[in-house]
């Protein structure tokens, strides 16, 4: 997969508000499926499907101990996204710097 494919997949995975909510919760620490499902207004099978999408998308990892499955964030979950945003930010800042340089070359008009 290319970096663009990874980025596309990440945006697709994170497009759902329930999945974003699970990610927000998991950023605070690991949680069981039951803990994640409690505040969600969806049935447990739907929660499991969302968590599978997050896991398949490389955002979370899970571990099963007995009958309990616990999810946690992957440490590198948003590296691709962070790099993409950082690159866009640097491009935008460079464009503003060029604009500021051009504006500095324009002589100011006197009002009198």
From TrEMBL:
GO molecular function: DNA-binding transcription factor activity
Pfam families assigned to the protein according to its UniProt record, in alphabetical order: HTH_20 (PF12840)
Domain HTH arsR-type: 1-93
InterPro entries reported for this sequence: ArsR-like_HTH, HTH_ArsR_DNA-bd_dom, WH-like_DNA-bd_sf, WH_DNA-bd_sf
Name of this chain's protein: Transcriptional regulator, ArsR family
Native organism: Pelagibacterium halotolerans (strain DSM 22347 / JCM 15775 / CGMCC 1.7692 / B2)
High-level lineage: Bacteria, Pseudomonadati, Pseudomonadota, Alphaproteobacteria, Hyphomicrobiales
